[in-house]
């Protein structure tokens, strides 16, 4: 079976997400394997938006451990409260960092990444089970609109767990 994304090219960011979200839902519906689904979601986001790095860290033995991603190699493990990812996990909320230099404790996996969004992923009981991390090598790419839609992506993952 062939799998292909259809994302309109000459439209704004919101329209791209609006087109992408139902396709993500269809892509992972009926597939119980979480790693397969996170891998496809990372690939679909990278293909749609071309970010520097996009992927997941998953909670394992009280640490965040690198999961499926697209982009250059990255840090493998992070503790709760450390870096943007560990802070998003600890505080159970999304974090938009327009300039990583201005986030105390930011963990630099790549010197090319200058701007970042981290969104928690919850299980059906609202416990954080991982985070979705997006990194850009540009200052003018990520914004609050991405936070809004990446939270929708996170909700699609939660829904797939039930
Ligand atoms: N910058 C992140 C670490 C993960 S990488 O960017 C892929 C942080 O501070 O949590």
Task: Characterise the protein shown here.
The chain has a single domain, classed as GAF domain (Beta-Lactamase, 2-Layer Sandwich), CATH 3.30.450. β5 and β6 (128-136) form a beta hairpin. With 162 residues, the protein is an alpha+beta fold. 36% of the residues lie in helices and 23% in strands. Methionine sulfoxide binds next to α3 and β6.
Summary tags:
162 residues, alpha+beta, Beta-Lactamase, six-stranded antiparallel beta sheet, 4 helices, 6 strands, 23% strand, globular, binds methionine sulfoxide
How would you summarize what this structure contains?
This protein has helices at 13-28, 34-49, 83-91, 144-161; strands spanning 53-60, 63-70, 77-78, 95-97, 115-122, 128-136. The chain is of the alpha+beta class and 162 residues long. It has a single domain, classed as Beta-Lactamase.
The top-level CATH class is Alpha Beta
Number of distinct beta strands: 6
Bound molecules: methionine sulfoxide
Q: What is the global morphology? A: globular
Protein topology:
Blueprint: H1 13-28, H2 34-49, E1 53-60, E2 63-70, E3 77-78, H3 83-91, E4 95-97, E5 115-122, E6 128-136, H4 144-161
Antiparallel strand pairs: 1-2, 1-6, 2-3, 4-5, 5-6
Helix pairs in contact: 1-2, 1-4
Methionine sulfoxide (SME) binds at residues 53, 74-75, 78, 83-85, 106-107, 109, 113, 116, 133, 135.
């Amino acid at each position: 079976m062939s799998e292909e994304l259809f994302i309109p090219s000459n439209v704004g960011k919101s329209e791209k997400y609006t087109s992408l979200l139902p396709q993500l839902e269809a892509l992972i519906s009926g597939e119980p394997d979480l790693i397969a689904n996170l891998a496809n979601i990372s690939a679909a986001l990278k293909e749609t938006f071309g970010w520097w790095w996009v992927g997941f860290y998953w909670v394992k033995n009280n640490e965040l451990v690198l999961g499926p991603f697209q982009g250059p190699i990255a840090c493998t493990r992070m503790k709760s409260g450390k870096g943007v990812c560990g802070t998003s996990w600890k505080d159970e909320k999304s974090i938009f960092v327009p300039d990583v230099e201005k986030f105390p404790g930011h963990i630099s996996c790549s010197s090319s990444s200058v701007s970042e969004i981290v969104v928690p992923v919850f299980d059906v009981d609202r416990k954080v089970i991982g985070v979705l991390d997006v990194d850009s090598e540009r200052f003018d790419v990520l914004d609050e609109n991405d936070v809004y839609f990446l939270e929708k992506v996170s909700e699609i993952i939660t829904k797939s767990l039930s």
